[in-house]
Amino acid sequence: DKPLRSFFDNLQNKAQETASRLADKHVRLAVTGLSGAGKTAFITSLVNQLLESGSTASLPFFSVVKETRLMGVKRVAQPDLRLARFAYEQGMGALNNMPPAWPEPTRGVSQIRLHIKYQPAGGLSKLLFEHSTMVLDILDYPGEWLLDLPLLSLDFGQWSEFCVSQMQQGVRQLLSAPLREALLTFDWFAAGDEVKLLALSEQFRLYLKECKAAGLELVQPGRFVLPGELEGAPVLQFVPFLGDKADWEQVPAGSNLALLIDRYEQYRDKVVKPFYKAYFSGFDRQIVLVDCLSALNRGEQAFDELQQSINWILKSFDYGQNSLLRRLFSPRIDKLIFAASKADHVTPDQQDNLIRLLESMVHHARQDMRYQGVKIQTTALASVKASKVGQTQYQGQKLSVLSGHDMHGQTLSLYPGDVPARRPAPTFWQTQGFEFPQFLPPRRDPLTALPHIRMDQMLEFMLGDKLQ
Ligand code: GDP
């Protein structure tokens, strides 16, 4: 009967998991990117491609599929029941709607587990087993939280200096004006007043949210914009110091400043560090999605902040002997992909440039880092290809154009522009604009796999070696 069968199914699942762990067939794949980078669409498509790999999915570069060794993929209960379940069905529901819609983005950590059954390609596994099962755990977490890692090596004074100097840059000057005014008139040395600190920290959060809304990406502390379960907790109620130079050795006990320092330090020790300990140190492989095109759309400052964010995010993968990370945890990520998302927003002839642009951004950040045992790949992909490519004649020349549906469902046909292969020169921003439109997801038969660009190559790099 049913309960008994599910008991045995469970037992079998457990046994399979143990066996695949022994045979090193358990992969923990982490997916991150700043809000809007495309994590939700990406995981939805990844799961869909795998589930449909035996039928309608087009995965010519995924060797286990090409060699017809993939026997079946199924979703099973996730291992960590404290985490949100990745809303795959809801996401597919939205994409299958008429008219289709993008999945609702997830905002904290969520998880999904798949069992991938396959025939080993060769070696001992092929001799011993007719088939093997790989357990694939996919974990989704906000890239904003990675921007907190550098805080671990900054004390409150240094962190405040960074924030205050950042407030002077470009549009941040305007956005931070009311906050700076409030900070300048705040009595840092008066007896600690939690209510005042709450009001001030709300103003700080408002400023950070406005920066985000303006398309700026180097927004930290990460939990101030994406608090997860910490919404309302005093550990998120601090602000940077702005005033005459403080004597950090002699901060009066019980003062506002003493409270702020304590909260900042608790944020580092009780929020940031545990995240790295609980999750990060358990990942095997990581994909970071980067929305280069939106940054190009928004202009120079947004682009520069995206570059800075990549620099900061890369610190989380710096495993050099003296790196902060190695000293604190023992990470073991061995493959890392940086992927420019939404590549269906540019014509195929521009996709190489998009990859080169991201490569140059990552390279710029990697120069002074030593990577030990981490393979890094840069690519461009579309989780869900929402445009079609066509040709048109323009001034006697053939030109590729894209067509799709805009967010109101109107048919759109356009040439979105050239993608620069590296950071554009300053004058460039004044003379040429970018116009990458948003598309509705494609209309398609819900029984078919989602169309994509290069998801198969991504799967091969991330999982191919483990499915040998
Ligand atoms: P998240 O905040 O990182 O989870 O980002 P989402 O997955 O919610 O993506 C944000 C938005 O980017 C979506 O609502 C879509 O408009 C767009 N998007 C994401 N992936 C793709 C893609 O592959 N192609 C296109 N055309 N748009 C995408």
Overview of the molecule:
This protein is an alpha/beta fold and 468 residues long. It folds into 2 domains: 2-141 and 279-385 and 446-467, P-loop containing nucleotide triphosphate hydrolases (Rossmann fold), CATH 3.40.50; 155-275, no CATH class. It is built from 17 helices and 11 strands. It has helices at residues 2-22, 39-51, 63-66, 88-96, 123-128, 156-166, 171-175, 177-184, 194-213, 222-225, 256-278, 292-298, 300-314, 324-328, 351-366, 426-431, 455-463; strands at residues 26-33, 70-76, 84-85, 110-118, 132-140, 285-290, 335-340, 375-380, 388-394, 397-405, 411-414. Strands 1, 2, 3, 4, 5, 6, 7 and 8 form an 8-stranded mixed sheet that branches. The chain has a 3-stranded antiparallel sheet with strand order 9-10-11, with no helix packed on it. β10 and β11 form a beta hairpin. α12 (292-298) runs antiparallel to α13 (300-314) and α13 (300-314) crosses α15. The two termini are 37 Å apart. The relative contact order is 0.14. The model has no long low-confidence stretch (mean pLDDT 89). Guanosine-5'-diphosphate binds next to α2. Guanosine-5'-diphosphate (GDP) binds at residues 33, 35-41, 102, 105, 341-342, 344-345, 382-384, 386, 438-439.
